[in-house]
Each structure stands twice: as structure tokens, then as C-alpha cells.
User: Which sequence fits this backbone?
């Protein structure tokens, strides 16, 4: 495929990249923009490690062609890091022991951020349904669920 | 030549012309990007045409007694839209995971034409029609005429799926069940979608569609005929016999997800459960 100039908003900044439109968003984020917080796990949309926010909705960046995001807004874990919500989530993940190898953590934080944005005080079953597409091979999930509940109690008006 | 193709066409006609010239249509990308991963490394794959700016492929619109669902409508949009028929919403909620449903489109689920496509049994049970957009022609087909074999549709080289039309005023009861190894990110071993119209404790009409137990979705016209105009009490009595008939109607295979024998047994059990559930007294 021929190269095209693709323009979008990345972590609130307008950016452009010259690339073939079928390049995967995850590759452009990691290799062109050096935003390596977004992880590739399965590369087939099954694990959630590559989750980003596309126009505010949790989306799997390994399944998105860069041509599809022209004119849209992308937030990665690096962009989320600037928000008060991230500080609360990060502390809650620490306190609950929700991070072991850490590979799934950026995706887990992404889905948790979006869930707590949409629901003030989700119960355990809502949390588990929201993270149904995020795999963790270390924790057994209980501590991650606990971390998200903890963040919900501490969130105040942060997001 | 190929470089002249528009990357982001704004009309169905332009998009259809790009497809006719060899571009691969991109809607949600969730299936396409996985299939394309290997080919992309060779650099020899055909170009993509992104459909997201084609306004006529978007949105859910109420028509007279029907609903027009743009082919680019995502599974998440369908699940949350108040006008979505309950049966279709229930089926779309079982697709993949929340983030996948934010990208995956109903049009993609149809055109992929997988025997295990989650929205398909519901669309068959709702007697859905599809609106196809070509360079010079538009036409409508019943859903079962569009999907002809695993991975194969009746779309012509210059045609794209523009929308799905479902009637809004027929069935008042539905049943949907997908059997898979886990609830998220798993393909169906067997699924059953049923739409029924009940009046005064009599079943006026019922449409039964099984997924993942044949090359395409299987409608059970003979069972539907036997159920028509019977009292709910009478149907509940016959549930096991009708379930056995369903198990004979389907054409399951052994594959990596399940065995034909398991699928046959479970399909019958699903219909039996469905009949008891539809026939249960409501308050």
C-alpha cells in the first residue's frame, strides 16, 4: 500500500505520520512515537494489553489500522498518566497488590479508567464484566478487582 | 492506478467503486486486521478503503414499522440503542469483549459470513433484509440469500453492505443463548435465536435459527410450521419431541471448538429449554 499522511490527536496534541494506512496503530504508537507503555500481548484482540482510548472508548490498538483514526483522538497510558484519575488508580493498584509482572497493567488501568468514568460506583460483577477482555496470567484477577473497587472509593471528583 | 483510489470515500458509490477496483473494505477492522497480519509482512496485499465517512452506512433510523441499521453500527452502539430489537441486542452483547464491541460492526459480522457469527442467528430469526450499495445499483436481499457459504456472500465485486432492515412490530418474545467455553472472547459452539409472537396463550408464529451447526445459519421451517397456532400448554408438552426434531435438522461438524455429537445434543437441549421458557406463564 502507498504511504499517506495520517493526522490525529495523540494525548491531546495534534500529530501527523506518513505511513501505509494499513499499519497497525500499536506499531505506530510504539515504533514511530516511542510510546511503549501500550503493550502487545496476543496481537489478535484477545488479551487487552494494547488497549487505548479512541474517541474516549476503550479500543484494541492491535486491531486498528492507522488509516481508520485519521481525524480522531487517541489517549495512551502515557496520556492518562497526566490525569488525577491515573494517580488514584496507580495508588490503588499498588495498595491492592494488583501488579505482578505488570504486562497487562496498562490495559487494566485503561479499562478501569473508562469504567469509573462511566459508572460512579461499579459493583464487583460490573467490574468483572468490564475487564472480561483483559487477560492477566499472574494475579488471578482478585487483586485487580479489589484495586478498582478501592479506586472507586477514593476517586472523589477526580474524573 | 491503485494510488488513485480514495482512502476515505464519503459516498457509498465512491466506496463501491474503490472495492470494484480492488481495495478491501475496512469497517471495524477486528477480523480483517487479524487475517491481514501475515500478508502485511509480504507487502503484497491489496490496499484498504476506509468506510467510516460514508454517512449512508451509519446510524440507526426508524422507518415505518422497521428499523434501518447502518452497516457501520458497532456492536456496542446496537447493545445500548433503545430501538434495537431485544433479540439482536442480546446476540450482539455476546460478541468478543467490551473493547472489541466498541470497534466491531454489524456489517462486518455479516460480511465475514462465519458460521459462528454471533449476530447472524438473531438476524435470521428476525427475517432481516440487507440493503446493498453498488456503483450504479442498489438492491435488497433477505439475509439468508446474502450469506451463501462459510466466508462467502452474494455481494458482487462492486457491492457493499449499506444497511440491515429489521421489522419492529412482529415478535414480542425472544430467546437467545450462545454456548461457548467462556463468556468473553470465545466463538460459539452452538447458538440459538428464537423470535415468537404469542397472543392469548396461543403461539401465532415462531422463527427458529441455529448458529455454528451448519455451513450457514439454519432456520427450522418444519418445526416452526408445527408450532404455529398451538396453545403454549400444548407446546410445552411437545418440547422434547420438537427438540429431537431440531437435532435432526441441523448439520453440525467436528472441529477444533467442539464435536458434532456435542453440538447435536446441546442444540436439542437449547430448543427444549427455549420452548419451556417461552411457554412459561408471564406476569
Assistant:
Amino acid at each position: 500500500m502507498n504511504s499517506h499522511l495520517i493526522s490525529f490527536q495523540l494525548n491531546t496534541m495534534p500529530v501527523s505520520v506518513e505511513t501505509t494506512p494499513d499499519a497497525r496503530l500499536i506499531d505506530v504508537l510504539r515504533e514511530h512515537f516511542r510510546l511503549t507503555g501500550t503493550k502487545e500481548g496476543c496481537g489478535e484482540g484477545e488479551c487487552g494489553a494494547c488497549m487505548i482510548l479512541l474517541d474516549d472508548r476503550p479500543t484494541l490498538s492491535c486491531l486498528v489500522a492507522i488509516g481508520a483514526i485519521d481525524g480522531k483522538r487517541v489517549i495512551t497510558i502515557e496520556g492518562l498518566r497526566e490525569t488525577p484519575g491515573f494517580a488514584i488508580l496507580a495508588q490503588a493498584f499498588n495498595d491492592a497488590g494488583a501488579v505482578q509482572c505488570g504486562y497487562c497493567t496498562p490495559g487494566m488501568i485503561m479499562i478501569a479508567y473508562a469504567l469509573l468514568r462511566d459508572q460512579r460506583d461499579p459493583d464487583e460483577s460490573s467490574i468483572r464484566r468490564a475487564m472480561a477482555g483483559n487477560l492477566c496470567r499472574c494475579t488471578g484477577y482478585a487483586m485487580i478487582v479489589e484495586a478498582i473497587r478501592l479506586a472507586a472509593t477514593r476517586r472523589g471528583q477526580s474524573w | 492506478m491503485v494510488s488513485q483510489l480514495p482512502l476515505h470515500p464519503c459516498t457509498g458509490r465512491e466506496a463501491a467503486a474503490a472495492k470494484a477496483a480492488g481495495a478491501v473494505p475496512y469497517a471495524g477492522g477486528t477480523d480483517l486486521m487479524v487475517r491481514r497480519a501475515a500478508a502485511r509482512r509480504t507487502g503484497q496485499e491489496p490496499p484498504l478503503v476506509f468506510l467510516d465517512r460514508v454517512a449512508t452506512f451509519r446510524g440507526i433510523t426508524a422507518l415505518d414499522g422497521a428499523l434501518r441499521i447502518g452497516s457501520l453500527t458497532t456492536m456496542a452502539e446496537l447493545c445500548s440503542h433503545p430501538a434495537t430489537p431485544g433479540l439482536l441486542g442480546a446476540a450482539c452483547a455476546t460478541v468478543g469483549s467490551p473493547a472489541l464491541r466498541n470497534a466491531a460492526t454489524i456489517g462486518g459480522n455479516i460480511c465475514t459470513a462465519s458460521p459462528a457469527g454471533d449476530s447472524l442467528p438473531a438476524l435470521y430469526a428476525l427475517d432481516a433484509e440487507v440493503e446493498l450499495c453498488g456503483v450504479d445499483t442498489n438492491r435488497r436481499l433477505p439475509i439468508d440469500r446474502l450469506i451463501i457459504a462459510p466466508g462467502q456472500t452474494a455481494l458482487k465485486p462492486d457491492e457493499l453492505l449499506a444497511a440491515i432492515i429489521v421489522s419492529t412490530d412482529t415478535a414480542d418474545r425472544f430467546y437467545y443463548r450462545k454456548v461457548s467455553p467462556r463468556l468473553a472472547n470465545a466463538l460459539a459452539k452452538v447458538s440459538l435465536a428464537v423470535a415468537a409472537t404469542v397472543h392469548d396463550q396461543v403461539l401465532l408464529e415462531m422463527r427458529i435459527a441455529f448458529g455454528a451447526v451448519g455451513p450457514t445459519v439454519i432456520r427450522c421451517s418444519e418445526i416452526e410450521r408445527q408450532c404455529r397456532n398451538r396453545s403454549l400448554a400444548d407446546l410445552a408438552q411437545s418440547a422434547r419431541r420438537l427438540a429431537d426434531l431440531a437435532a435432526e435438522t441441523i448439520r453440525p461438524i467436528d472441529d477444533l471448538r467442539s464435536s458434532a455429537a456435542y453440538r447435536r445434543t446441546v442444540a436439542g437441549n437449547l430448543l427444549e429449554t427455549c420452548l419451556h421458557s417461552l411457554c412459561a406463564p408471564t406476569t
In short: The CA atoms of residues 75 and 92 of chain B lie 6 Å apart. Residues 56-167 of chain B form a domain with the Uridine Diphospho-n-acetylenolpyruvylglucosamine Reductase; domain 3 fold (CATH 3.30.465.10). Chain B has twelve helices and 14 strands.
